[in-house]
Design a protein that fits this description.
Blueprint: E1 6-17, E2 20-32, E3 42-48, E4 57-62, H1 64-80
Antiparallel strand pairs: 1-2, 2-3, 3-4
């Protein structure tokens, strides 16, 4: 079942693709059919820079368990570091 529910957000960061590193400007998270993962549905996460074209994209296709584990790991890593250490305002 496709939900068509998409969460989009702006971001500042970098990603590495086939042509090397590039700046990222947006992220998208949605539950849908994967392109490559061996499941009927996955949590799909795209990090992109549309100004650089279709190749400026880093894509993830995760099970919901792995997506939640990733979210938990991100929260744990940020909480364990000193506040503001990786902030935009560093």
């Amino acid at each position: 079942m496709c939900t068509y529910l998409t969460e989009k957000f702006t971001l500042e960061g970098s990603g590495k693709g086939a042509r090397g590193w590039f700046r990222l400007s947006e992220g998208t998270v949605y539950v849908d059919h994967p392109v490559h993962a061996p499941y009927a549905h996955t949590v799909n996460i795209d990090f992109r820079n549309p100004e650089l074209g279709a190749s400026a994209r880093v894509a993830l296709e995760l099970t919901e368990e792995d997506a939640l584990a990733l979210a938990d790991a991100i929260h744990a890593a940020v909480k364990s570091a000193p506040a503001g250490l990786a902030s935009r305002n560093q």
